[in-house]
Amino acid sequence: MSLSRETQEKLQSAITKMANKYISAEESKVTDFHIRVNGENGELTILDDDDNTLARVHIKEWEGEHNEEVYEKELQNELTKMHRQGAFDSLNIVKPYSFVLTDEDGQSIVDLLIIDDDTLILSADLLEGFDEEMNSFLKKLLEE
Questions:
Q1: What is the pLDDT averaged over residues 56-68?
Q2: Structural domain containing residue 59
């Protein structure tokens, strides 16, 4: 499923609204932004560490959608695009901080985006197969 252009703009607007709350002279110690999607009504809510609502938006395409992988993919795409465009560069937040997809009980499902000074982790698949490659490299190195 791919979101319509209008929905992508609504999602970006909600994320921008959240981000604008952290452009200030005072450094914030937020560690995570929690993103919850209600599959029944399509409502997306962005919360801080203390469960304060920072932004809320209705995603029509997600009404009745209960597949967290759909939310994960679309949210990662939008967050990554916004990060590359510099949308989070002026936030006065201690790094690292992350955007986390959570369930209705506030339990983490997946890290959508981790922002650090030198590190950007886009997904858990980033290191997939790393063990096999490292073992193969070490075996080849030891054989020489």
A1: 88
A2: 5-143
